[in-house]
């Protein structure tokens, strides 16, 4: 029995962050420019607070100027929009992210679309989505989780996926749709699947590359996988796990890791896979934005 390579997102992200930190130091030395990242969080959602804290830590480790704006959960849309307007105009800020989900009374579309496309390091703005969909991957910010998935795939298979079949499970705007655009730009033959897909396991079994981004714990089983496939698990599901007879909160992906690792050639784990890569890609986008703001090559 073969055992799949465990794609170590944590180590890859640490390498990438070290490169970004070195480039940031050079940018400061040679151009007196420090990349600035602003994180906006509305309310006190505990998971969002952890995500924003991790992004802030990563920004500081890269040598960035890092600011966090925490607004009360009952803030009005006008409050959020006027903060974004300020950040859009702030020359020390090159990347703005509004942590999702937002409280229900706020219109997330209106808010994410108010971020200047030039500072849209999450790549949620329709200008950046449009460029990506049109295959203009050099001219756009690429959303962080899909970019992290591609980085991992590239490490296993190289940058040209000609002749390979990729199946994306999940059609979200944050992951499923943009990762499909990136796979297509890399010449893969791409199939999008979702909760209404018939015979999902049969479709996934045809894939050389599987992106699991459905948000359902352990959904993708070993017998769904073609032997030798590369499997990227984007799921972050909070579940209860039994450890030494005690029930503890735990994180698990969309892929049944134990089963799939007996069939696949390589698999990214949860935690320690796509999550750290997402944050590293956010840092890469912020550095890129700072360079572009000064007319430098990226
Ligand atoms: N919530 C879940 N994923 C993301 C992300 O990538 N960016 C932001 N801003 N919020 C999120």
Question: What does this entry look like structurally?
Answer:
The chain is an alpha/beta fold and 298 residues long. It folds into 2 domains: 31-117, Rossmann fold (3-Layer(aba) Sandwich); 144-274, 3-Layer(aba) Sandwich (Rossmann fold), CATH 3.40.50.720. 40% of the residues lie in helices and 18% in strands. It contains 10 helices and 11 strands. The strands form 3 sheets. Strands 1-11-8-7-5-6 form a 6-stranded parallel β-sheet. A 3-stranded parallel β-sheet has the order 3-2-4, with helices on both faces. A hairpin with a 2-residue loop joins strand 9 and strand 10. The chain is globular, with a radius of gyration of 19 Å. Residues 97-100, 122, 144-145, 174 line the site of guanine. Guanine is lined by residues 97-100, 122, 144-145, 174.
Oligomer: single chain
**Tally of individual helices:** 10
In which range does the helix fraction lie? 25-40%
Question: Which segments are poorly predicted (pLDDT under 50) over 5 or more consecutive residues?
Answer: none
Structural class: alpha/beta
Tell me the series of helices and strands, N- to C-terminal.
EHEHEHEHHHEHEHEEEEHEH
Q: Enumerate the distinct ligands.
A: guanine
Give the CATH level 1 class of the largest domain: Alpha Beta
CATH topology of the largest domain: Rossmann fold
Q: What does the overall shape look like?
A: globular
CATH architecture term of the largest domain? 3-Layer(aba) Sandwich
Query: Which range does the strand content fall in?
Result: 15-25%
**Count of all domains:** 2
The major β-sheet equals: 6 strands, parallel
